Amino acid sequence: MKTQPHTQRTSSAPSMAALTRHPLALTQDQLLTRAQLMALGCADSTTSHRCRPSGPWQRVLPRVHLLHSGTPTPRQRMRAALLYAGECALLTGLAALSLHNFRAAPRPERLRYVDVLVPYEGVGARGASSSYVRVHRTRRMPEDFPVAGLGAAAVVRAVADAVPALACERDVTAVLAEAVQRGFCTPEALMAELGASHRGYAPYVARAKGHLVAGVHSALEADARTVVHAYDLPEPLWNPNLHDPVTGMFLARPDAYWAAEGLALEVDSREYHLDPASWRRTLSQRNRLAHAGLPVLAVTAEDLRWRAEGVAGEIRGALAAARRRPAPPLLVNPPPRGASSTSRPEGRGGLRPEGRAGSRPRGGRRT
Length: 367
Hints:
The protein is α+β, with helices and mostly antiparallel strands and 367 residues long. Helices cover 39% and strands 14% of the residues. It is built from 15 helices and 13 strands. Helix 7 packs across helix 8, helix 8 (155-162) packs across helix 10 (187-196) and helix 9 (169-181) packs parallel to helix 11 (203-214). The protein is elongated.
């Protein structure tokens, strides 16, 4: 008679070792919800006992339990956020971008908040934020594009959801440009998604969108474009594809190119050139441009940030010098609107290129 109660508890409450080996716990990174634990035979009283301050488990979010007492990993924090928000929840914003290793997003371990989307009228979805989880109800629930087994919104939606949390034009530009440069979406799709949210964005978001439409591929290139506008310099093409006019062979994709004057601009940063492969690519591109007879003006990230007026003077002087000599007839893809596909038509004619360069992502990225 004395052993009967003990036998009943053992049969009704699975052991901790058995639960950690359960397929559901393995799939969910050692996280189980209250409902899942009950379905596996673990009563609320048992769960509460195991989640006591000195116990072997812990409650990381309401109704979400971690089957050990150690610090949750970044992945477990994201998994817990999805379990808390409901079965239809998807990661979005900076959390989703961090899974794609965006340089413009924090690393997963440095995320302060995890943003999740849930259907506006979804059954079983929780609309209340809790702890580090910010729940956003939406009538435009995106498709699930899982990353490493975690449900996530498509990058174009994640970027649009991340923008309101970014505090300055440079951060917004970096996120927008990286999404396009790495081929996750087109500028047009990104602009459409930003417009579909009907949010009242800060003024600097509009400026960041302008950089993207112009063809800018990084925050440093946006800094260069800001200098161009601030000192009333001609607007170049940003990231155009330059080709040999005879063979059609691709030569290079400089950061900026003044087609009427025949001058290229390259923005160098220590971060981009840390690895030898990136440095070799840059040197190879410069050599091809030099062989084609195209002058290249190089500036650094520090130059743009701390001596913008000096950089503007250097660009103005280089443009004046370029106008005194014939420019190489390179093919520009796409060409300036209203111009031929060569970088300078027969006779100067005062042509100033306009429009944006192609959006094909390059191999490396400057930040």
